[in-house]
Amino acid sequence: MSTRLVLIRHGRTAWNHEGRFQGRADIPLDEHGRAQAGRMAVHVSNLMPAAIVSSDLLRARQTADALASVTGLPVRLDARLQEIDVGSWSGRTIEDAAAEMPDLHDALREGRDFRRSPSGETAVEAGTRVAEVLLELAAESPDRTVAVVGHGLALRMAVLRLVGWDLPTGLGLSGLWNGSWTVLERRERWRILSYNNVAPEPA
Questions:
Q1: Can you say whether residue 81 is alpha, beta or left, with left for phi > 0 and alpha for psi between -120 and 50 degrees?
Q2: Fewest C-beta atoms under 10 Å: which of 10, 99, 184, 191?
């Protein structure tokens, strides 16, 4: 028997589309994001989740609600699943942030971790926070599948934490796409069964 976590990134928002840092800003899904969430829900429901747990930010809640409408499961909210805190960078583009942090592009290219604005988190801090929640959920639900709806960077960093990869090694993992789902399984250890799955858009 095994425990599985289905990690779902919320659908697209206007700020995603515009390339803006979101962090803790409570931005809703846009029309495209709502459609992504609906398509995701059909596919993830086939994985037979026993529970749905979501970040309490609106974009994640709306995505979780799409899955709940298909499965009939209630949504449990956990604020610890929120996206990395980007502090004063919220709502700004990467170019805006680079004006404040001149080596930002170098840090991203080289895979170096850094604090997202003076009042924000590092990627490792966000991943550690979310990984703690995932481990709790796995302990609560042995031999079951739990769907977890959250945010791109925080979820990706939590995946690295669970499978035991460091940040440079994890650079091989692409960023999670809006409306995607990633499946982790724990038997003796955590492993990635599938990564960044996305439902095809209608022709």
A1: alpha
A2: 99
What's the CA dihedral at 159, 164, 169, 172 to 10 degrees? -30
Q: Is 10 known to be catalytic?
A: yes
pLDDT of 142-166, one tens digit each? 999 999 999 999 999 999 999 999 8
Q: Whole-prediction pTM value?
A: 0.96
Out of 18, 31, 43, 83, which one is annotated catalytic? 83
- Whether 140 is catalytic: no
The SS3 call for residue 17 is: helix
Distance CA 27, CA 61 (A): 11
CA distance 72 to 75: 9
Residues 174, 78: Cα–Cα separation, whole Å: 25
Catalytic-role residue among 10, 32, 43, 105: 10
